Amino acid sequence: MLLPLSEADGLILDLRYATADNLTGAPIYRRPVALLLPEARRRLLAARDQAAALGLRLKLFDAFRPIEAQWALWHAVTDKRFVSDPRDGGLHPRGAAVDLTLCDAATGAELPMGTGFDAIDAASAHGSGNVPVADQRNRALLLGLMVGAGFDPYLLEWWHYHLPDARRHPALCASAVPGGPM
Fold first, then answer.
1. What pLDDT digit, counting tens, does each position of 7-65 carry?
2. In the chain, where are the structural domains located?
3. How far is Cα of residue 150 from the mean position of the Cα atoms in its chain?
């Protein structure tokens, strides 16, 4: 069962795949919906609380991604290290992964991370020396918050975190979305 996330949860939602502001250049979701498995949702809200104690907020770019949307990304990205093969299910289609960043709680401004969300670039990797030191610190802060809440990072993407046991959950299609397909 997938559970919704909203601004009422103290999160900032900027669900990029429901807009043209993503690496495909076109919306791949019909409506902006953020969903996670109950365990992933609980852990994300724990990270939210830790971020709030530091004067920060979490901004979500993506959460559950139906397998149909995973196919759209698979076809749009040439460097397959940056997108899971939909035949293997991926992690987002299981409702066990989030893409996010940190924002200043007072202003809502994103903390600089050295690259944008979904940048298909070696500089997107955790520990990349090709970004300013201050941006590396921001990435390390996000990493600490998310790992402290029980998520694992994907080392090539500073924005991606998932449940350590994500693959034990089935990959889902758009018909699994409460209220109708995304």
1. 999 999 999 999 999 989 999 988 889 999 999 999 999 999 999 999 999 999 999 99
2. 3-176
3. 15
Which residues, including other chains, have CB under 8 Å from residue 107's CB and lie 6 or more apart? none
Question: Quick count: other Cβ atoms within 10 Å of Cβ 181?
Answer: 14
Under a CB-based contact definition with an 8 Å cutoff, are residues 82 and 120 in contact?
yes
Q: Which residues are annotated as a binding site for Zn(2+)?
A: 92, 99, 160
Q: Is 68 a catalytic residue?
A: no
* 108 Rama sector, left if φ>0, alpha if ψ -120 to 50, beta otherwise: left
Q: Residue 23 corresponds to which tokens in the numbers above?
A: 């690496």
Correct CATH for 3-176 of 3.40.50.2000, 3.30.1380.10, 3.40.47.10, 3.20.20.140:
3.30.1380.10
Kindly state the helix (H) or strand (E) to which residue 58 belongs, with its residue range.
strand 56-62
Residues annotated in a binding site? 92, 99, 160
Beta-bridged to residue 94, according to DSSP, are none
- Which residues are registered as beta bridge partners of 4? 35
Q: Please provide the average confidence, as pLDDT, over all residues in the chain.
A: 94
What predicted TM-score, i.e. pTM, was given to this entire model?
0.94
Cα distances (Å, whole numbers) of residue 115 to 61, 62, 88, 143: 14, 17, 28, 15
pLDDT digits (tens, 9 = 90+) for 65-95: 999 999 898 998 888 888 889 989 899 999 9
